[in-house]
């Protein structure tokens, strides 16, 4: 062939190859204050937001004010090729990334390659987790969300394009010690295996504001009933009604708080797969049993997995609406189909919720691969097995919550799978792993992914371990004793039984604080448990010299930039630094501003790294200057709806301060219709040097559960 012909053929070939490719022109539209959306290619009708039926809280977003589009739009690129969507978002030097779902061992995500894939966490932060949320935030103060229920590949600042505007330096490995195996990358690149997708960008200007906008866009965080913030114990799977009653009585007699008991699989006549029907031998009179427990102030939570036994009474009706493959020989209901929902939840409603059951632990909706339906499975709705897997947790959370809403009773339960869209659904994630350290890192990451996580206590080799784990779970979204298999009780280790009681009582006393912090999650989008990186002025920057620097020389600057995986914020004011078994002292990074010891009110430091030696009895907790912590008297059960409760309001530090205390009936959905109130707590130092605390008047016609108020100024 002649040379000129050859060139023409080549050009034609290139043209054709590019024909199926198109770089999409993007028209970002501000759909709520500080939230921009673009649809590229042909987005699939079924996605994370539709599965959850998300209703953005546009008013709360509006109240956050306006902000500019946080990225250079020209630097965002989208291509649709081979029926897949290729995305690229810019990444600057020094930027750190957080999020990409519920990770357990890492907080910094820059430099990660992940496949966001629903699964039981397998001890590696590779994207396979209980909440593989396609959302990330940057230390530069913005967030990006890919609304797809597909397995998404993420290259979070790892890949280097040959036409990059900011290429890494070309170095010679033979002679240059700065040569890097992972050269500098200037982008987050994402591959979505679908011919289009909806993208969202959340403005800041701070990282916290980007997180809040994401949460509010998802409808705001969940607001548990007050009792959800008390203690829960799970009991052995073959316990009978009498055993459960005896167990609750023991808690009461020994003076350990308890708000709900979880029944493991044996309450059902058959499980794995499940009938969702009471076992008549162990629970001959379920309605009377549930009622009796309620009278004693203890609610019942039921374990289940969703897989329907051929022996379940609903089986013949639901069978036409189930998937092609079974799980443990049980049918998998296609819960995207309204008829399937009606049959399925109809059973739950009739046999459980109508007789007073308070919630569920919905198990096994995440994986493992060898148990779950395979990706080749099909479902009658046409939703693919992959999409079903990414969203099944969200479907069961949403539909069960709606069932409780019909009874105007809030629920608070456990689930092993969530995703974007699940933010407002009142469930806490748990799993079968048991590393205390990973549990704390999970708690930190839950705040970046719109989820809640419990560092449950399950079993322990020693009293020390039992106490250390117990201390952490008391500063978490759900104080769960998941000791159904080990039968460990709070008092099992006599050498720490008194300390366990004390920390449990503290958890209960702090209920007004926890409840208000959850209300802020709901109304303002602020995650109640989160990383210190979200604190104002906590500027995480990726500076190589700092990452390799010596902690002794410039401790604070170095510490801020290192990954902080073992301390977290609990609500507006508290910094919690758990102790792990075997530790007698630890380092704590105190963000800027003064910090005070929670127990004594003494100043401990400001913007520095301190070492603490708290002894076995205490979990280190520090309070921000001007921190206000409303507390109630010790109670073994959460207050009843509308019950008046006295408050002791603590103030810490030197700053005058104000805190908005949230109030409602604590149990119904009436708050969604405006039946709630905020009271302002004010602490001010008078001219004579004395502190004075006041509370604003209750609002007429609004819930008011505040009894007598006393103030305690903790810092002299
Ligand atoms: C597991 C679950 C455990 C427990 C158990 C009961 O899959 O994670 O917490 O409920 O099932 O069989």
Automatic annotation (TrEMBL):
Instruction: Please provide, alphabetically and separated by semicolons, the GO molecular function terms listed in this UniProt record.
Output: carbohydrate binding; hydrolase activity, hydrolyzing O-glycosyl compounds
**What keywords are assigned to this protein?**
Glycosidase, Hydrolase, Signal
Q: Which Gene3D superfamilies match?
A: Glycosidases, glycosyl hydrolase (family 31), Golgi alpha-mannosidase II
Segments forming domain Glycoside hydrolase family 31 N-terminal: 82-151
User: Can you give the residue ranges of the DUF5110 domain?
Assistant: 647-700
How far does the signal peptide extend, from start to end residue?
1-23
List the protein's name.
ABC transporter substrate-binding protein
Instruction: List the source organism.
Output: Runella rosea
